[in-house]
């Protein structure tokens, strides 16, 4: 999950590090200084005990208060040692092979309650790089960026655009935001992404913090373990106490990794957290890593591999380069903090061990299971076609029951479209009102003047397009009370339709097609939208999608071969430009499938505009020559001029077709016709029968799309791969081609079910082919 201005994981992955290579890298950085000569110094943590400064390879035993052995491990090449999954309690000691033992330590639970409020008495400067100590003694790297003006950043404005004569000499106390991430967040020279820079322009101080086990932060990395959430709690409470923080409350901001971490931290409810604003996040690990039960070896697994690499002790070929650079320049704290990096969890092994749903392992990692605990105001934005985290984020809306102050924005687009102009305006309003507690009009004029820079930085839009922020009625209010009252009257859910087809407010006549402006929008009180109808179209002979089920039996056949279509057909990278740029940059080559490798079905021309908003499903009666086949269903719009536009996809591993019973599943909701929830439990795996048809549910990811009058809705069923730019399924089934048959009859009612919102006005014409963001378009061709 990347962010603006940062080269993404998929273009920077280092893979297949041999064990000897790992050891060589670990030894490349000199081991940390022992904490005391000859002493064994243990530290109690949340269900953990950790030690540093040990002899490499030496064996140590963890003893409980009765002197019984709990665990035995060897110190690694860095002299670090970490015991995990230790029962809370007092009196633990660590003993060396020669009989020497540490003093007694206490192992704490993972409850958020502070162990000592003295932890938060640290003094953090209002500018610059440093280290913040958490409750268990771990030092996290941070950089404080005070608010700044465009002039101080050396920003050049477009010709003819001048900044108004405003006082931009921000003085403390500052409204303050925390960005908490596992990327190179705390780099002293400046944040790696454009989001933090934009927040500085908006008058916020930004505190960038690297999570434990990454960069120059101490500790060992584990994917969103509870201790990371406790660290987040400690960061918030420590920063909020600083004299330069306005109101002694802070907000959280960030995109992707920095968005997910907000959800994990906010569930602990730190007293001085004012609000969170996560952008482009996930709802669960499964919907990104295992869509439909199939391992996503494209972006998701590549992202995990890079996390493994970046969590290694910093050296010339491992860890985060900026940390190694600091060590070479004499940062002894950063060097010492590498001591436990070698104790990072084996993330790839963890993924393999959790290829099926195991509640004890999965639930703590899935935001959808705990966002109900969040009590602070929330602003969240996601995209239906997000090529990195996936389009399943809207499933969380109904689960945010812990707060009444919550707003959501959804649109078509790529990963970074959560900062498109319309969404950016509301994001800024939200942070101004609930963190800065001031009217957003204070800096609105400055933001408009610097908009070309904002979108060149964040979205890869050429400055020649002269983009700007659209009019915002909240910013037009006279003061804080009026702006707050107007904002709180806004409907909770906002959907931007046809992103890429709108006009640039500054120069509408010179609009660049594909720039991130919506064609129109609608707002709702909640999501799924009240009144949504589960509209069914039934599979029929000759590739037809019918309004009513057919009584006559028909069968269509295709050869399932996941390797018949290139796993990645995106022509370019996903950094600035690529999927994030304007139409000519982010369009990607959406190729036709080879004949005989898919079946498709098409409705008659629609008699009226049909808005589909929410999740859906394809239910098909299938028979296969192989016991396991992976299925992909793709929904498209075929317009009267013979063009086909991608809308959404869904996936299912055939032997994992069983639906979950009740709410005891990864999404914590009951299956419905529109939202079938597959079990993913190992006990529910069943081979596909060879000689009879069985019904399979293929859950479709969320969509918000208006199918215009005269268009036809198409569903294509095939093997996986080929319809997403950077999602791929290298381990897809079958390994060898399989003959698949799809049946439909009076008894076997194969169908597509979509969430139609009746009577929803569509005020604009059908967008031209290829201008909708992250919705490629091609010539229609029957399969």
From TrEMBL:
Keywords recorded for this protein, A-Z: Hydrolase, Signal
Residue span, Xaa-Pro dipeptidyl-peptidase C-terminal domain: 493-753
Keyword presence, Signal: yes
Signal peptide range in chain numbering: 1-36
GO MF terms, alphabetically ordered: dipeptidyl-peptidase activity
Protein name per UniProt: CocE/NonD family hydrolase
Organism of this sequence: Nocardioides marmoriginsengisoli
């Amino acid at each position: 999950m990347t962010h603006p201005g940062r080269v993404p994981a998929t273009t920077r992955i280092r893979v297949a590090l041999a064990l000897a290579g790992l050891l060589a890298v670990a030894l490349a950085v000199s081991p940390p200084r022992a904490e005391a000569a000859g002493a064994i110094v243990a530290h109690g943590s949340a269900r953990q005990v950790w030690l540093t400064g040990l002899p490499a390879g030496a064996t140590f035993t963890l003893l409980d208060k009765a002197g019984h052995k709990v665990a035995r491990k060897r110190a690694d090449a860095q002299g670090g040692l970490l015991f995990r999954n230790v029962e809370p309690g007092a009196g633990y000691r660590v003993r060396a092979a020669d009989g020497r033992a540490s003093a007694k330590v206490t192992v704490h639970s993972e409850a958020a309650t502070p162990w000592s409020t003295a932890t938060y008495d640290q003094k953090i400067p209002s500018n610059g790089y440093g280290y913040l100590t958490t409750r268990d003694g771990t030092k996290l790297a941070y950089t404080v960026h005070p608010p700044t003006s465009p002039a101080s950043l050396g920003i050049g404005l477009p010709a003819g655009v001048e900044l108004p004569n405003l006082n931009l000499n921000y003085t403390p106390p500052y409204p303050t935001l925390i960005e908490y991430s596992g990327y190179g967040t705390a780099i002293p020279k400046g944040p790696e992404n454009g989001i933090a820079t934009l927040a500085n322009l908006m008058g916020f101080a930004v505190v960038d913090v690297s999570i434990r086990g990454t960069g120059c932060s101490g500790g060992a990395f584990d994917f969103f373990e509870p201790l990371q959430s406790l660290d987040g709690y400690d960061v918030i409470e420590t920063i909020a106490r600083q004299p330069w923080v306005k109101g002694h409350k802070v907000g959280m901001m960030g995109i992707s990794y920095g968005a997910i971490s907000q959800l994990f931290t906010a569930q602990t409810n730190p007293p001085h957290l004012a609000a969170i604003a996560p952008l482009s996040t996930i709802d669960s690990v499964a919907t990104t890593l295992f869509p439909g039960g199939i391992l996503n070896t494209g972006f998701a697994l590549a992202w995990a591999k890079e996390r493994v690499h970046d969590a290694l002790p910093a050296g010339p070929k491992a860890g985060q380069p900026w940390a190694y650079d600091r060590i070479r320049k004499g940062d002894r704290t950063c060097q010492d903090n590498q001591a436990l990096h070698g104790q990072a969890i084996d993330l790839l092994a963890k993924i393999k061990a959790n290829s099926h749903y195991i509640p004890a392992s999965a639930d703590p990692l899935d935001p959808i299971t705990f966002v109900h605990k969040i009590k602070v105001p929330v602003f969240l934005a996601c995209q239906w076609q997000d090529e990195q985290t996936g389009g399943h984020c809207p499933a969380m809306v109904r689960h945010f029951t812990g707060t009444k102050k919550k707003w959501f924005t959804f649109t078509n687009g790529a990963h970074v479209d959560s900062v498109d102009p319309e969404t950016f305006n509301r994001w800024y309003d939200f942070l101004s009102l609930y963190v800065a507690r001031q009217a957003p009009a204070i800096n609105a004029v400055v933001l408009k003047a610097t908009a070309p820079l904002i979108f060149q930085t964040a979205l890869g839009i050429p400055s020649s397009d002269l983009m700007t922020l659209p009019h915002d009625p909240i910013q037009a209010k006279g003061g804080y009370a009026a702006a707050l009252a107007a904002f709180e009257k806004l409907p909770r859910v906002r959907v931007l339709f046809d992103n890429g087809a709108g006009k640039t407010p500054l120069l509408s006549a010179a609009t660049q097609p594909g720039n991130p402006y919506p064609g129109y929008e609608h707002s709702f009180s909640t999501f799924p939208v009240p009144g949504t109808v589960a509209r069914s179209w039934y599979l029929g002979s000759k590739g037809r999608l019918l309004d009513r089920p057919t009584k006559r039996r028909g069968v269509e056949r295709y050869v399932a071969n996941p390797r018949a279509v290139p796993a990645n057909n995106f022509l370019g990278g996903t950094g600035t430009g690529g999927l994030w740029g304007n139409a000519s940059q982010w369009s990607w080559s959406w190729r036709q499938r080879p004949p005989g490798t898919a079946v498709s079905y098409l409705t008659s021309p629609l008699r009226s505009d049909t808005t589909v908003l929410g999740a859906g499903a394809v239910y098909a009666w299938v028979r296969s020559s192989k016991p396991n086949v992976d299925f992909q269903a793709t929904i498209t719009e075929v317009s009267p001029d013979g063009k086909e536009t991608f809308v959404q996809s869904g996936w299912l591993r055939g032997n994992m077709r069983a639906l979950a019973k009740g709410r005891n599943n990864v999404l914590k909701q009951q299956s419905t016709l529109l939202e079938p929830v597959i079990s993913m439990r190992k006990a529910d795996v069943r081979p596909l029968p060879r000689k009879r048809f069985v019904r399979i549910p293929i859950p479709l990811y969320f969509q918000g799309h208006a199918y215009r009058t005269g268009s036809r809705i198409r569903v294509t069923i095939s093997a996986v791969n080929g319809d997403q730019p950077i999602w791929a399924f290298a381990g897809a089934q079958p390994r060898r081609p399989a003959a698949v048959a799809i049946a439909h009859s009076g008894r076997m009612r194969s169908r597509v079910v979509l969430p139609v919102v009746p009577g929803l006005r569509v005020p604009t014409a059908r967008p031209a082919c290829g201008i909708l963001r992250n919705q490629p378009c091609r010539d229609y061709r029957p399969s």
